[in-house]
Design brief:
The complex is a heterodimer of chains A (about 240) and B (about 280). With about 240 residues, chain A is of the alpha+beta class. Chain A is about 50% helix and about 10% strand. Chain A has two domains: about 100 residues, no CATH class; about 120 residues, Alpha-Beta Complex (Outer Surface Protein A, domain 3). In chain A, a hairpin with a 5-residue loop joins strand 3 and strand 4. In chain A, helix 2 packs across helix 4 and helix 5 runs antiparallel to helix 6. Chain A is elongated and about 80 Å long. The N and C termini of chain A lie far apart (about 60 Å). The relative contact order of chain A is 0.10. The mean pLDDT of chain A is about 90. Chain B is of the alpha/beta class and about 280 residues long. Chain B has a single domain, classed as TIM Barrel (Alpha-Beta Barrel), CATH 3.20.20.150. In chain B, the strands form three sheets. An eight-stranded parallel beta barrel of chain B has the order 1-2-3-4-7-8-9-12, surrounded by four helices. In chain B, strands 5-6 form a two-stranded antiparallel sheet. A two-stranded antiparallel sheet of chain B has the order 10-11. Classes of the chains: A alpha+beta (about 240), B alpha/beta (about 280). Chains A and B meet through helix 1 and helix 2 of A and helix 3, helix 4, strand 6 and helix 6 of B.
Chain lengths: ~240, ~280
């Protein structure tokens, strides 16, 4: 009986339309107002809460798409997504895949993917440093770096960084970008643009290559490398060197 | 801190809006903070680091929203594992969730849905609470929720339902005074009579919050100040049931930290007054 009652309750939410006065026998008549009026709290609540939850991850995408399109996207997404996750804020975690599957314009899919990476960076556990400034001098071709969980690389064919960091416009221009995402000293997720060479070296190091392996096919000067290493250490992209 | 002192502590819900103020050392009058457990079961980034820092100065209560204790779905062991792991790290003073259901057929609806108040529901809840308590290795508190509709075929009143579940499952209750007020208006019953019938020994904590007046009912929104009627009910609860750790809950339309601290201090003053009166009576 309980199972049936709960199923009926959910079915009512899924088919809820306040205009049609659903004469359900599931509930008692309330002392004031109608069943529909009160049931709307439950029926409309899911959309309101999931939208709010998704906007924890996607802050720029709603602005860029405009409220109407964003609401329509959110609604179709949550209707088709069976969320098992108990954290409301993670309900949007599959949105980029959903948008891609449903043939949304590539720049918007890329923006969604970028914002999801920023969110993941923010919630990643960065470790305490396990090396001293003195060890900086010991870095050589055999050095391997253990990266912080918050350190991520992002490559795209759209000017996402420009939109995220600088532009107040709501359109995305085409153009290759190589972006580093990392946690700043306050634990906030931040990003900066990388030259393609630095992006490639970091990509190699992130998958566990030695410094020598990572720079093997890259044209760069010793000064470039010194400069990059200094930035990476300052930005605490990794916590240990081997 | 003596047992009597512990019973009279007051605090607020920890929300990101208050991280900067609390980290600056403001709000030191607060005696505990309560987290929404699910906000920390996934994150190990800044929110968790903030929590760990604040834990050094404040006792923490863990309050969940996804235990889904009233559903016919099985208890989720993956969820309990995460909860237990967080408990180990935070060493909370209380672990609580809601006497409700939040989803079925393996879909989470992220809401606190009302339960049919029947013997079948009691049995279902009791069985699941026992599993949860066995797994977590401690007793949990369950909160009475705000509701807008009652099921046909209810076999008991809300306080009877809460008594049955908590007694048979040997769990505790988190008594949300605002939820009682909202329900008493929405379903036309006497809230004072309800308080007199509560199982005193089962109640471990109070929640206080605000709500929104709709045309024909009250909506539990946690986005307003606590109203006078709820303060009156709280006062009566303290006199009838006794002081318990009291939490000011705010989830939207956030005021300054100082404003919430004021409300927490008011609850503390009410508890201390009742405690002193009782002590004088017993002397």
């Amino acid at each position: 009986m309980l199972k049936t009652q709960l199923s009926e309750f959910l079915a009512l939410i899924e088919s809820f339309d306040e205009e049609k006065s659903g004469e359900t026998l599931l509930f008692q008549n309330p002392p004031l107002g109608s069943k529909d009026e009160r049931f709307s709290v439950y029926a409309e609540g899911y959309g309101i809460r999931t939208k709010k939850g998704m906007e924890e991850i996607f802050q720029l995408l709603p602005r860029v798409l405009g409220e109407e399109v964003w609401n329509a996207l959110g609604l179709s997404y949550v209707r088709e997504t069976k969320s098992l996750n108990w954290n409301l804020n993670l309900i949007g975690a599959s949105l980029p895949e959903y948008m891609k599957k449903n043939s949304w314009n590539e720049p918007w899919v890329e923006l969604a993917r970028f914002e999801l990476e920023l969110y993941r960076c923010f919630h990643a556990e960065n470790k305490e440093l396990e090396f001293s400034a003195g060890e900086f001098a010991d870095i050589n071709d055999e050095s391997v770096f253990l990266f912080q969980a918050g350190t991520r690389l992002f490559q795209t064919r759209w000017k996402l960084y420009e939109l995220w960091k600088i532009s107040r416009e709501n359109s995305l221009k085409p153009g290759d970008e190589f972006i580093l995402i990392y946690q700043d000293a306050e634990g906030q997720a931040t990003a900066r643009l990388l030259p393609e060479g630095e992006y490639k070296v970091l990509s190699g190091l992130l998958i566990g290559q030695t410094l020598g392996e990572a720079i093997a096919d890259i044209e760069l000067t010793a000064e470039d490398l010194q400069c990059w290493l200094a930035s990476w250490i300052e930005e605490v992209l990794f916590y240990k060197m081997k | 801190m003596s047992f009597a002192d512990y019973q009279s502590i007051s605090g607020i819900g920890l929300r990101p809006q208050y991280y900067p103020s609390l980290l600056e050392g403001r709000g030191s009058e607060l005696e505990f903070l309560e987290i929404v457990s699910e906000n920390f079961t996934h994150s190990r980034g800044r929110p968790f680091q903030v929590l760990k820092k604040l834990r050094q100065n404040f006792p923490i209560a863990m309050h969940g929203v996804s235990l889904n204790i009233g559903s016919t779905d099985a208890v989720r062991i993956d969820y309990l594992r995460k909860l237990k792991s967080l408990m180990k790290e935070i060493e909370p003073i209380l672990v609580s969730d809601h006497l409700c259901w939040t989803g079925a057929h393996q879909k989470n609806w992220y809401d606190l849905f009302p339960l049919p108040m029947t013997e079948e529901t009691v049995k279902n809840c009791v069985e699941k609470i026992k599993q949860v308590q066995d797994f977590l290795g401690r007793q949990i508190c369950l909160e009475n929720i705000s509701t807008y509709l009652r099921f046909q075929g209810d076999e008991m009143t809300e306080h009877e339902f809460m008594c049955e579940v908590s007694t048979r499952a040997d769990c505790f209750l988190l008594f949300d005074v605002n939820n009682l007020y909202v329900n008493s208006v929405n379903h036309h019953f006497n809230a004072y009579e309800f308080i007199r019938q509560m199982p005193i020994d089962r109640i471990k904590q109070y929640h206080l919050a605000g709500h929104t007046k709709m045309k024909n009912f009250l909506f539990d929104t946690h986005d307003e100040d606590i109203c006078e009627d709820v303060w009156d009910l709280y006062h009566y609860s303290i006199k009838t049931i006794g002081p318990r750790p009291t939490l000011i809950e705010r989830d939207d339309n956030f005021p300054s930290l100082e404003k919430l601290v004021e409300e927490a201090e008011l609850s503390k003053a009410i508890m201390l007054k009742a405690f002193n009166q009782r002590r004088r009576r017993n002397a």
